[in-house]
Amino acid sequence: MLIDWFTVGAQALNFLILVWLLKRFLYKPVLDAIDAREQRVAAELADADAIRATARTERETYRQKNEAFDAQRAALLAQASAEARTQREQLLDEARAAARALADARRERLESEAKALHQAIGVRAQKEVFAIARKTLSDLADAGLEERMVAVFIARLQALTAEELKGLASALAASDGAVSVRSAFDLPPAPRAACEQAITGLLGADVKVGFDTVAELVGGIEMLAGGHKVAWSIAGYLTALETGVTELLRAKEGADATAARGGDDGRR
Amino acid sequence: MHLSPDELLFWQYGAFRLNATIVFTWGLMLVLSLGSWLVTRRLSRGLERSRWQNLLEIIVTGIEQQIGEVGLDEPRKYVGFLGSLFLFVATASLFTIVPGYEPPTGSLSTTVALALCVFVAVPLFGIESGGLRAYLSAYLQPTVIMLPFNIISELSRTLALAARLFGNMMSGTMILAILLTITPFIFPIALSALGLLTGMVQAYIFSILAAVYIAAATRTRRPPDGGTTAATGAPA
Fold first, then answer.
1. A6, A9, A25 member nearest B37 (Cβ)
2. pLDDT digit string, tens, across residues A177-235
3. Is the CB of A41 less than 8 angstroms away from the CB of B25?
4. I want to staple A164 with a disulfide (CB 3.0 to 4.6 A). Which of A160, B40, B51, B218 is the partner?
5. Do B60 and A26 touch (CB under 8 A)?
6. ipTM greater than 0.85, yes or no?
7. Per the CB < 8 Å rule, is A6 touching B15?
């Protein structure tokens, strides 16, 4: 008989015992260890996920902060640039204004200096010229000259137009009717009579003619009647000469000033 | 020359007969339990683990995976029974390389005992899973007429389970013994290697068939989509 029932029972029992033993010593510990490891791995993965999520959040936060910081920096830079530009413009304007003021002051100073110098030169020249003229004319002045001057004066009186004479007569009528004839030297009686005759001949016989001596006339003669003046004198020529010289100087100063302004503009 | 290790008696007292089958079974039990205890007494629960622990984990998870692939929903519940079947049969054939050893599975008594264990375990797992009524109603499927055939199927498959393992293991041992007397060199080694392979295949077949029977029993209460037909076909 191949089947021994005692052995069958013993083997069945043995197998059940083996099942218990293997469950006790093999399956349970091994499966528990695997479960524990899987749990640990899962926990570590969950931790890693959490850390990754945290890191992602932090990275996002830092990115936003960085962006905000960049934007703020750009804004500040732009603001600073604008302020610097404005200040630069302001400083440049101030500097230009200061330079312009300086140039103006310098030009004015130069102009005033030039004017003063020209005046000084003019006055000096005038004085020199007049001194020379006076000296010359004084040296030359004598009765003959005065006669010629009176003759010239009378000729001028007679050359007055009718309107001028009329104005002169009305002015004389409005005044006290006195006519003053002034000369640098005392007129001798002959020229004086000729002069008086010419005046009365032109303005009427009732005109009172007075004669005065005025040294400033240098050489010459003039008639004052009611605020009107008819004159011929060397001083008049000298005055005309002086006026001409002054105008010449002024023209020259104007040209200098224009040239100086042009130079300033070029430098600016 | 003996057909079964049952015939090799070590000690006898009345009906109690301590034969080679029982003794070698104890030896295997000792080796399996002691080996497991030695490895699992210091198990690592971390990522670093010993080679032996790795081996045991591979074996246990492999068994669990195979059970799951058969179609059992909670493989861990069946690992103890089915895994022990596989390990016992596999170890029994593996030790044939030890001279003087005779596999206990070469005894029809052992295979009958294992088949009876399966025979008892199948309804137990089935009743536990779906209740007694659901389990018994599976015998009336698809009609009441099929009841005797289902019962015959249940008995015959148990018998087939026992006979198949016994035949394969016994034949291997027998052929080896016969060859040793005829050609003592080379051939026994080749056939011994072939016997190892056969033993492993038989261990796999035995435990997988048991798993299939249990799966069929536990699925009887399921709705039609889960499948109610038990896989009763068995390989030679």
1. A25
2. 788 888 877 777 888 888 888 888 888 777 888 888 877 776 678 888 777 787 777 66
3. no
4. A160
5. yes
6. yes
7. yes
